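User: Just a sanity check before I run the rest of the batch. Below are the structure tokens for the first item. I only need the designed sequence back.
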């Protein structure tokens, strides 16, 4: 029997299996890991009633289908926002929380620098899909860091759904919020992985805010990584060791 039960929620671009395949392999057979696809991609078009609540319900449904009353929760980017929403609304379910650069953490106590990032993101709504993707990606990098080169060959079929998915989750962020008092009641260990080349006005500011509300908060900075070559894909062994330590601490 595996020692740890884990649900991993991906970001808004890569499918769950591609996002977490290397990390799951590095975690090894002692971990029962489920890479859970976002609900926004459960249908060809985003659901009309799409919200973070819908994503939270999907994660809980996955856990319930396996008989997991508690589980360790890992979320990257948009999946990190989903994980925060779940911790705020169902704090009894996650045994620990690992946040890999969550894209959003609510609007409470946002610094002017973080608010400016979201003001720029608002301009994505009026851009054509191919242009909005480039702007969306550049916003998440530290100034001066170039966008990664696109992979060779034709885009995979799933890529055609991504502009609509991005717009849907951005609208969900605009229409929702996360209660910091609810987050402060989550008393399990929290781990935050931050790329040194990611936009500090977004991800660095989110880490600062979360450090103030979580009782047991650990920040690890990966100096050479950014949001689009994240540590769980490029340095999966290091992240696997950090997660295993987190999970053991949660049981101690």
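Assistant: Here's the designed sequence for the first item:
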């Amino acid at each position: 029997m595996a020692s740890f039960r884990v649900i991993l929620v991906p970001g808004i671009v890569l499918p769950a299996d591609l996002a977490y395949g290397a990390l799951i392999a590095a975690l090894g057979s002692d971990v029962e890991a489920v890479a859970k696809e976002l609900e926004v991609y459960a249908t060809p078009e985003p659901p009309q009633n799409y919200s973070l609540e819908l994503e939270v319900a999907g994660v809980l449904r996955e856990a319930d289908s396996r008989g997991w009353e508690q589980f360790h929760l890992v979320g990257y980017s948009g999946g990190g926002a989903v994980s925060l929403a779940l911790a705020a609304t169902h704090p009894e379910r996650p045994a620990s929380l690992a946040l890999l650069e969550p894209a959003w953490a609510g609007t409470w106590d946002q610094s002017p620098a973080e608010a400016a990032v979201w003001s720029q993101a608002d301009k994505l709504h009026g851009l054509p899909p191919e242009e909005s993707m480039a702007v969306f990606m550049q916003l998440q990098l530290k100034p001066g860091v170039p966008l990664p080169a696109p992979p060779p060959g034709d885009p995979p079929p799933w890529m055609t759904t991504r502009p609509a998915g991005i717009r849907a989750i951005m609208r969900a962020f605009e229409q929702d919020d996360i209660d910091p008092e609810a987050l402060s009641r989550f008393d399990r260990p929290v781990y935050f992985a931050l790329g040194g080349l990611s936009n500090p006005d977004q991800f660095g500011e989110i880490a600062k805010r979360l450090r103030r509300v979580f009782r047991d908060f650990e920040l690890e900075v990966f100096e050479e990584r950014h949001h689009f070559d994240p540590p769980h894909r490029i340095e999966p062994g290091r992240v696997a060791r950090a997660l295993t330590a987190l999970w053991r601490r949660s049981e101690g």
